[in-house]
Amino acid sequence: MIMAEFKKVIFFFFTTLLLAHDSPYSLDKFKPVLEISKLQAPKSSFNPLYSRKYGDFADYSNKYFYLQDRKYMVFYMCGNHNRSELRFKNIWKVGTENKKEMEAEVKLFPLDEKKEFTFLQIHADSTLKNMPTINKPLLRVVWYKKLKGKRSHIWAIIRLGDDIFSRYQKIDLGVMPKSFFDVKISVYKNVLKIFVNGVEKVNMDVGYWGKYYNYFKAGVYLQDDGCAKVLFKKLTVKD
């Protein structure tokens, strides 16, 4: 009887170890971005099971956000319009004279996502009082299963006006690499630039968006059913 109970305890202990995840905050390279961000999952509203408040990441992980192989910060999610994303605290306008940059070295796993998912964003702040607000992104960097006859490409989806009826421009950033690749987004004096592996892909005047405050986001946000996973080898934000 004692031996049977002992085996149960050992089984539970090792099962817990297998299910447990390391915290991305345990790596120094991820501490700067985690100290200025909050985790949103599986929706934008705070969920105490899977969300995290600004800077509160010490020893924290869950099944949607964890460290893999002691190297990679992982965002994983399933379900239409669900997300596991970091929202960065600092807000700014596109007319800024202090260049804003987000750079990521990422690897994408669409898994069984049926249409598209977002992994980097510039989003307008819709929570400010007595200021113009809109609950829309200026930019989404996405993986599309198929768009304009091209399969498994990365696209920049850029809003072309400042109201809810605005159209979008979809710019092809190239076929999704099978390995890690680098994406850098910069905003400076109303100009949005996007670089992929050091090559400039977008150089666009976005001054029409000037009345809104914005913030960067990074992670995985599904636009359809299915699941997707993103590994970050590097993620930095410069304000």
From TrEMBL:
Residues 39-238 form the Alginate lyase domain. Keywords: Lyase. InterPro entries: Alginate_lyase_2, ConA-like_dom_sf. SUPFAM superfamilies: Concanavalin A-like lectins/glucanases. This is Polysaccharide lyase family 7 protein. GO terms for molecular function: lyase activity.
